[in-house]
Amino acid sequence: MDTISERIAIAVVVPALMQQVMQIENDYDKEVYNGDIGYVVNVDLDGGELAASFDGRSVTYGFGELDTLVPAYAVTIHKSQGSEYPAVVIPVLTQHFAMLQRNLLYTGITRGKRLVVLVGQKKAVAIAVRNVSGRRRWSKLREWLTVSMGAQNFCRAF
């Protein structure tokens, strides 16, 4: 009879064949990186492995490593940065007021290669376009540059 741990291991959620998946952390050994999108090409239940294709290259994961893959049927604007997609659908609703920022809308729109669809309210789009505030970044970049370049040189550079 199966032990409890064997039954739990079998109960791990395994993506379906041909399902799109996204790598959510860098794996230098497998040469897949945060944000890479592939699709499931094989699931070996007996061997406890899944194979995903990333740009035509097959990458094998043990079931214990599946926490580094997530379904990629919908991706946040944050996760899409640095990537492009043939088509992008962006919900733009006043209910998501905190997310209505020009930089987020711009980033989302520029991810689409051929088609971008905004679904929602014109008022929400107008709010996002006018909202240039975003969140203030509290970095010490200016301070570090001033110290490393010297106040005189920093002021001349900027």
In one word, what is the shape? Answer: flat
What is the CA–CA distance across the termini? 72 Å
Major beta sheet, strand line-up: 4-3-2-1-5
Write down the overall mean pLDDT: 83
Order of helices and strands: HEEEEEHEHEHHH
Considering DSSP H and I runs of 4 or more, what fraction of the residues is helical?
25-40%
The largest sheet, given as strand count, sense and whether it forms a barrel, is: 5 strands, antiparallel
Strand content: 25-35%
Low-confidence stretches: none
- Computed over alpha carbons, the radius of gyration is 22 Å
**What is the CATH topology descriptor of the largest domain?**
Rossmann fold
Structure notes:
The structure is a single chain. Helices cover 28% and strands 28% of the residues. With 158 residues, the chain is of the alpha+beta class. The chain has a 5-stranded antiparallel β-sheet, with no helix packed on it. β6, α3 (102-109) and β7 (112-120) form a beta-alpha-beta unit. The longest helix has 9 residues, at 122-130.
Note the main attributes of this structure.
6 helices; 5-stranded antiparallel beta sheet; 158 residues; alpha+beta; 2 domains; SH3 type barrels
